[in-house]
Amino acid sequence: MDKVGGVKSKYGDSTTVDFDLAKVAQQQAAQAQANNTGQVSEEQAKGMSKEQKAQYEAALKQRSEAMKKNKALNDAFNAGQDAIKQAQAEPDKTKRPPMYQTAIDNFNKAGEMDANQVAVWDSLGEAYSGLASSQTGDERNKSYDSAVEAYKKALALKPDDAAVYNQLGNIYGAQKKIPEATEALTKAAQLNPQMAAKAYFNMGANLVNSGSADKASEFFKKATDADPTYAEALYQLGSTSMMKGSVDPKTGKQAYPPDTAPALQKYLELQPSGPHAQEATAMLSAMGEQVQTKITVPSAKKKK
Question: Among 7, 72, 239, 298, which residue has the least CB neighbours within 10 Å?
Answer without folding.
Answer: 298
